[in-house]
Design brief:
Elements lengths: L1 H46 L2 E3 L10 E5 L6 H6 L6 E6 L6 H9 L3 E3 L6 H12 L3 E4 L17 H9 L3 E7 L1 H4 L13 E4 L5 H5 L8 H9 L8 H4 L3
Parallel strand pairs: 1-7, 2-5, 2-6, 3-4, 3-5
Antiparallel strand pairs: 6-7
Length: 237
Amino acid sequence: MNQPDEESRQAGRRQAGRRESVLLVWWKWLFYSGLQIVCRLAAVVLFEFRSVGREHTCVEGPALVLSTHQSHLDPLLVGIVFDRHLQSVARKSLFGNRLLATIMRWLNAIELDRERGGLSGMKETMARLAAGHLVLIFPEGTRTPHGRMLPLKAGFLILVRRHRVPLIPMAICGAYEAMPRGTSVVRRRPIRVEVGKPITAEELSTFGQRRRPSPCRTTVGRLRPSGAEPPAAALNR
């Protein structure tokens, strides 16, 4: 008699856990969508925000979004260009602030511990791609200190080649002028974002087997959002 009762209780707990998981996913979706609407309105009002090439964001299935990195505003700026929800890779130090960590977890951000090689973050990124998500990475590894594009790190190529996912290049111009590295003050400056044509895994394989990111850097560097001030300051070709 006790065994069936215990099995029933366990089944009830599993069912309750599934309901909780579904509710949590729904609440996270609602939070992301609401924040996206607010950020879109704020970007237009504060930064005269414009985007070019949004048609390239309409991809099905998993993909890596590859963006230049100018300021703390970048994840929000990239997120408002896509209709689909993005899951960003963020360094572990950003999770040190309890409020910021809570927000990033509600946005399904991926924690990357670079001091330990980033292996767990890499595995989690692979899992998200395998589940069909869009994952945003900043392959420069850090925000630019001078407004020009930094060398790209080659780690993202491993993800692209292992999962055979397309890579969507993006360039941001004006975010450095709006919020340069080393300051928490946001200034009203025009910001433009351009989305490039997706690069397939097959196209990447033609770049050679040395895992050099330079061809991707060239692709990103060619993007010049119209109206950005000044485009040359944001992208070092």
